[in-house]
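My convention is simple: the sequence line spells out the residues, with the fold written below as integer tokens. I include a record here:
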Amino acid sequence: MNIIDNVQMVYLTRLLVAGACGVAIGIERQYRIKNAGVRTHFLVAIAAALMMLISKYGFYDVLAQGVGMTCDASRIAAGIITGIGILGGGIIFISKQGLVSGMTTAAGIWVTLGIGMAIGAGMYQIGLECTVITIVMQCIFHMNRSIFKETRHGQIVFEADNTPEAIRKVTDQLKENKIEVARIKMEIIDKKHVTVHCSIIIPPMYGPEDIISLMNRIDNLESIDF
């Protein structure tokens, strides 16, 4: 095997290792039924590794032909980081009520990009270590312990009399249970009744069963989304 074949094998190895790291992170995300799974993370990782290979080694022939020519090896790498924003933006969803989802998955895509870039640059150890750290910490943060849980956003919809007292009764009930009301939107049904949309912030100590139990105490409840 000549020198060129050896170099190509090194490139291929970097792509495969980067892809394997992307698959490992993607499996954890897909297991939790997130928007981006194995295929997305795999493609992001190998694409980042490929771009880094091009950035580092893709211009040797051009440089060899020109006397005094220089090349900024970091330019393509910088473009990769900018370009990933398009994919990350497509994963993050904002509902009409202003509720945001997909932030963690988008951050995971960004980490996967960095891992692919590191391995593409030949930094195998740091890329593999970052993969292990990412997966381990994702599993720890998903453990059923309140210290690792984050506040959740949700929405409840209920029908009430068209009076401040009727709406305040529900918001006070929520506050008594440490559920913060972030936003209220009302739709008038008739002169006496309104439909109220409440965007709420749910503390980490509440599980799904606790939330449903609390919401069922609200009169004329129409829907819960959290």
